[in-house]
Write a sequence for this structure.
């Protein structure tokens, strides 16, 4: 089975010329890998896609979070990261709420699972999330599993090919957060989980789609 | 342990090694499944396991740094790792070694990438036969790479010293206890930067320079193994 070339931290990738992307650093006109991962050299940018590591929030990411605390004017959300996020009341509901009379837990309570978007990240990584866009919602029923965040693109596949394959073959509803949290609901969720964990363990192997197709069979 | 008259006979050391020969090196990553990254490292009979947790949220909050990440290291020797039972828990020696391991690893990490967080490195010595701190550093550096933490380079470490008037590399416990001088050494191999240099004993300037050269060459060898182990992890063929 063919695998892709892996680079180690400190390994030389190329001479400086392109834009410095994620997972690389420049020193004396040369570009080195910063993390263990797969190098990617595009026309104008060089980067390394890590093979492991925790989720670091960045603006625009769609993530699945768990409400950990109901506060005076918002909620604290665990987004599977070293940094907890805050969901302000105005970003959580789209109508006027009088905070002096309302208990916010009637909108979101502790342990609720929400699909939301990272709306702001400060320099010292204070994170704000928002639910004011299409697709953001409270997830009811179902279960959640966690995978390595850097493998999420592989689980989704090119243009969603891999995830659609799993959805079609198992008939499950699946929502993937870019923070590595995956929500699954459906009769054959065991099969879906098995497939997702296989992808996570063998994400560096080429020709994985065929293997998953065979695994899920008919 | 009784003092031996001669640690080198006919140009060979007690375990049959040549003066500039390392013990058998063995490394493995991913040995602690609950950690973000982990590694095991063996220098002959010395066994160290390192596990890396994080970057994770740091509590209590007053320890948080708004600009950078905290690196915390703990070096711990198992009670059964040495001949005479070591009483468990931190002591003067392990507190010092925890600090030098942290200082040896800190220059390679991009700690500013994770403000307010912490990275915890636990180094456990399961079996001690000299050179435990450098085995710990090697394991920790592998574990950090395994955890996907941004680094400038891996860290390779080894020990060198002088026994019975001869300059040697990778001292065993026997040799270390009866050495004229010993030196722990860690470096960033592809940057040629030294991150740990600790010496005990008496050496002349020329001897020190020779030892540094020896240590650098040995670190290169350790580095080769580290690279091989990390690359092989992602080259499994089914």
């Amino acid at each position: 089975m063919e695998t892709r070339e892996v680079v180690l931290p400190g390994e030389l990738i190329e001479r400086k010329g392109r834009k410095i992307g994620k997972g690389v650093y420049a020193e004396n006109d040369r570009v080195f890998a910063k993390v263990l991962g797969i190098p990617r050299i595009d026309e104008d940018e060089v980067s390394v896609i890590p093979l492991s590591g925790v989720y670091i929030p960045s603006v625009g990411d769609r993530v699945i979070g768990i409400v950990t605390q109901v506060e005076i004017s918002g909620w604290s959300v665990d987004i599977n990261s070293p940094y907890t996020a805050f969901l302000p009341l105005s970003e959580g509901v789209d109508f006027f709420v009088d905070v002096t009379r309302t208990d916010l837990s009637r909108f979101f309570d502790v342990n609720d699972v929400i699909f939301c978007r990272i709306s702001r990240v400060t320099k010292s990584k204070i994170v704000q999330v928002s639910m004011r866009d299409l697709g953001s919602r409270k997830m009811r029923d179902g279960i959640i599993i966690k995978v390595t965040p850097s493998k999420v693109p592989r689980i989704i596949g090119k243009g969603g090919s891999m995830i659609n394959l799993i959805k079609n073959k198992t008939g499950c509803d699946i929502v993937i957060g870019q923070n590595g949290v995956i929500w699954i609901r459906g009769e054959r969720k065991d099969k879906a989980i098995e497939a997702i964990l296989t992808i996570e363990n063998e994400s560096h192997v080429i020709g994985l789609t065929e293997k998953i197709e065979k695994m899920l069979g008919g | 342990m009784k003092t031996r008259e001669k640690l080198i006979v006919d140009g060979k050391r007690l375990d049959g090694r040549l003066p500039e020969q390392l013990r058998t090196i063995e490394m493995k990553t991913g040995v602690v499944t609950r950690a973000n990254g982990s590694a095991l490292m063996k220098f002959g009979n010395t066994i160290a396991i390192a596990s890396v947790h994080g970057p994770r949220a740091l509590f209590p909050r007053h320890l948080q740094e708004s600009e950078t990440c905290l690196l915390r290291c703990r070096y711990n020797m198992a009670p059964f790792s040495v001949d005479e039972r070591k009483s468990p828990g931190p002591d003067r020696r392990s507190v010092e070694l925890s600090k030098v391991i942290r200082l040896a690893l800190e220059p390679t990490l991009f700690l500013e990438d994770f403000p307010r967080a912490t990275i915890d490195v636990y180094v456990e010595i399961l079996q001690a036969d000299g050179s435990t701190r450098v085995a710990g550093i090697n394991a920790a550096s592998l574990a950090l790479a395994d955890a996907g933490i941004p680094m400038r380079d891996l860290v390779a470490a080894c020990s060198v010293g002088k026994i019975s008037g001869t300059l040697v590399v990778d001292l065993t416990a026997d040799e270390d206890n009866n050495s004229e001088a010993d030196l722990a050494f860690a470096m960033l191999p592809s940057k040629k930067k030294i991150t740990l240099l600790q010496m005990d004993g008496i050496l002349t300037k020329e001897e020190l320079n020779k030892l540094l050269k020896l240590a650098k060459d040995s670190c290169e060898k350790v580095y080769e193994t580290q690279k091989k182990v990390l690359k092989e992890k992602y080259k499994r063929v089914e």
